[in-house]
Amino acid sequence: MAQVGYVRVSSVDQNTARQLDGVSLDKVFEDKVSGATTDRPQLQAMLEYVREGDTINVHSIDRLARSLADLLSLVESLTSKGIAIHFHKEQLHFTGEHSAMQKLMLSMMGSFAEFERSMIKERQREGIAKAKEAGVYKGRVKTVNDDQIRAFIAEGNSYRKAAESLSVSLSTVQRAMKVVA
Questions:
Q1: Which residues sit opposite 5 in a β-bridge?
Q2: What are the tens digits of pLDDT across the range 54-76?
């Protein structure tokens, strides 16, 4: 029966030290990516690792999921396999036992996490719009220009090969080629 920790921050430059500090753990999984989806490498590794009788320790609900649907799905899936989840900040512990109060608290706290994420995105969009109006925001600087992409394709390479070789997304290659068409 392992004590497993899951730690997440949204970006590489953020510090995870405050999460689960002082909690005795057998193994820790740490992601430095957005919690918008469950498609996170260390979350998926943890889900593969845990077994019946294990307890997953998470600093707070929003570290596990920023979507209520994802949160409820994760908790239900894990507890149905006999894996407990302990959210330290909220002092909630889920073992699969059906408690109306626990279900209510999980749903409320998950809703707050989802709401907070949507507010962050809204403020970000507003900030970008204001910066564009002021002429300050120009978007991300291109690492490869469209002419380089078109030249690579002209050499007989596929769109996918161009994207991979030039370290850009497939949609960037398609956009560059659309300009020509």
A1: 28, 57
A2: 999 999 988 998 888 888 899 98
- List of residues 6+ apart from 65 with CB closer than 8 A: 35, 38, 71, 74, 110, 113
Q: State the CB neighbour count (10 A cutoff) for residue 34.
A: 14
**CA nearest to 149, candidates 171, 170, 166, 132:** 166
Active-site amino acid positions = 10
> What number of H helices and E strands is found in the chain?
7, 5
Helix (H, G, I), strand (E, B) or coil at 56: strand
**Distance (Å, rounded) from C-alpha 88 to C-alpha 155?**
57
Measured CA to CA, the distance from residue 121 to residue 115 in angstroms comes to: 10
**Tens digit of pLDDT for each residue in 98-123?**
778 878 887 888 888 888 888 888 99
Beta bridge partners of 6: 29, 58
In 50-93, where does DSSP find H-type helix? 61-64, 68-80
pLDDT recorded at residue 179: 67
